[in-house]
Amino acid sequence: MIEVRQARYFIAVAEELHFGRAAERLQMSQPPLSQAIRQLERQLDAQLLERSSRSVALTEPGAVFLEHCYTLTAAAERAQVAAAQAQAGYLGTLTVGAVTSAFSEPLPAILGRFRAERPRIELRVRELDTIEGVQGLLSGRLDIAVIRHSGNDERLLSDPLSRDRLVAALPQGHDLAAGDSVDLAALADEPWVWIPRPISPRYHDELVAACRQAGFSPDPRHEANSIHSQLAMIGCGLGVGLVPHTASGPLMPNVVCLPLREPAPLVGLAAVRRTTDLSPLVAQFVRYAAPIPLPSTP
């Protein structure tokens, strides 16, 4: 197999047609260069150069071989540049998983900045729940997960992204939907559309804690796998729910979201990665994912 070093030696001799000038160009002495070219000819079992005491000329096999040497060295240079770009986080593939609400905020801003400054990165994004995100990271299927994570797993690093206020989501036409705000306790006897704990344990526990602080335990009559489907079910009149304020932006038809009168509980999103992951792309994503300011009270 021909090495890139050998190809560069031959290119220098073929372009200079003089071993002395070629050796000077390569910053080496002439005897080792002459020996390397003869070794190359033996390796190829072909005469690449016509030599005389006064001149050096390419043979037909030498001319054909020269074109392939150009291809080989160009490919090597491209590979070197690509490796440097990948090391700097400008080339490669990044697989990101995120919970539904993250696609309202903060992912649009993060992905927008990332793609604008690193257009050659191939981004692969998928929607998932928190448990799927953790499993995807640990199995290596994901590089980053934007999820509601407590940061209590030593195998994972968690960088907080945002803290968002909870609001009440009610079906349009509900007795309390016409107000400007609502007491959480006023929803104690309502049927609730709930996201089960196995899907997002931390998020589930924060919602339960908020309800208990208001003096009741919610009746989880209906179950949804995401906040998007939770809002859709509330819009069907099945019950009420608590959702992050940012997720209530483009509302589902027939859904009204109201701020809570008491101090609104907060829920958080984090950019999570493997503790052992030293990928420059992952590090750059985390840099772009600066914490998002807490939204003002609606």
Label this structure with key terms.
alpha/beta
Poorly predicted residue ranges:
292-298
Query: Given the C-alpha coordinates, what overall shape results?
Result: rod-shaped
Residue fraction in strands = 15-25%
| Tally of DSSP helical segments | 9
Structural class: alpha/beta
Proportion of helical residues? 25-40%
Largest sheet: 7 strands, mixed
End-to-end distance, in Å? 69 Å
Average pLDDT over all residues: 88
Number of strands: 11
Order of helices and strands: HHHEEHEHEHEEEHEHEEEH
Evaluate the radius of gyration. Answer: 32 Å
In short:
The protein has 298 residues and is an alpha/beta fold. The chain has helices at 4-16, 19-25, 30-44, 60-87, 107-117, 130-139, 201-213, 227-235, 280-288; strands at residues 49-51, 56-58, 92-98, 121-127, 144-147, 156-171, 191-194, 219-223, 241-244, 255-259, 266-274.
Description:
The radius of gyration is 32 Å and the shape is rod-shaped. The strands form 3 sheets. Strands 3, 4, 5, 6, 9, 10 and 11 form a 7-stranded mixed sheet that branches. It has 9 helices and 11 strands. The protein is of the alpha/beta class and 298 residues long. Helix 7 (201-213) links the parallel strand 7 and strand 8 (219-223). Mean pLDDT is 88; it is low at 292-298. The protein has helices at 4-16, 19-25, 30-44, 60-87, 107-117, 130-139, 201-213, 227-235, 280-288; strands at 49-51, 56-58, 92-98, 121-127, 144-147, 156-171, 191-194, 219-223, 241-244, 255-259, 266-274.
